Amino acid sequence: VIPKNVFYARRDNHCTKCEFWKGACLKGHQLSSPQGCPIKKFDPINGADYAPDRPALEAPAVPPPGNCCGKGDDELKPMSWAQAITHLKDSMAQWERDGWPLLPDASYQARVNRCQDECPHYRWFQCRLCKCFVFTKAKLPHETCPAGRWPV
Ligand code: SF4
Ligand code: SF4
Questions:
Q1: Nearest to 75 by CA among 131, 115, 129
Q2: Among protein residues, the one whose CA lies closest to atom 3 of ligand 2
Q3: What are the C-alpha distances in Å from 48 to residues 28, 34, 51, 78?
Q4: Which residue has a Cα nearest atom 3 of ligand 1?
Q5: 33: which of 3, 50, 52, 136 lies 20 to 30 Å off by Cα?
Q6: How far apart are CA 128 and CA 146, in angstroms?
Q7: What confidence score (pLDDT) does residue 66 get?
Q8: Which residue blocks in 4-144 are alpha helix, DSSP H?
Q9: Does pLDDT of 1 surpass 60?
Q10: Which ligand is nearest to the CA of 21?
Q11: Residue 36 pLDDT more than 90?
Q12: What is the distance between the alpha carbons of residues 149 and 122, in angstroms, rounded to a whole number?
């Protein structure tokens, strides 16, 4: 894991302005890795090399609303409280491993709009499927919508 100030400088000065950024690097660079940008927009640190310059992945397509994993909204079952607590612990551990990144504002707002404006599972700031507070959960890049409604 790299120092937080390096992580934020990479993200804010380069990646969020880059054509290959869609909430994550489409060329597969992990911002928390010491490797440099695959197209040399920022340097490696700690003696690492630049990450391999792979072909960019397609940005994830927006799935049809309520059609996650081939299931309709009525078939998606809310997590139990025990499952939700385990999910929260795992998610916090993942966030720490990634170096505490936060989603850029535009991508965050796109997620929150899906929750607030389009989703039958949203109630009082909370997702009824995973029991998370969506305004917090949506800030975490590694998190996903359990109904497949988020654009990133
Ligand atoms: S190509 Fe480089 S600057 Fe662009 S998103 Fe990936 S790591 Fe960031
Ligand atoms: S996270 Fe997904 S399922 Fe939960 S409220 Fe938001 S859009 Fe709906």
A1: 129
A2: 147
A3: 16, 6, 9, 43
A4: 15
A5: 136
A6: 10
A7: 45
A8: 4-13, 81-98, 105-113, 134-137
A9: yes
A10: 1
A11: yes
A12: 12
Ligand 1 atom closest to the CA of 27, numbered from 1: 6
Quote the ligand 1 centre to 60 CA distance (angstroms): 17
> Which residue did the predictor score with more confidence, 26 or 1?
26
Of 13, 22, 27, 32, the residue with max ligand 1 atoms within 8 A of its CB, to mutate for a pocket test, comes to 27
DSSP alpha helix (H) spans, 14-54: none
Coil, helix or strand at residue 133:
strand
Structure tokens at 114: 């899906």
Q: Whose CA is nearest to atom 1 of ligand 2?
A: 145
Over residues 98-112, the pLDDT tens digits come to 888 998 888 899 999
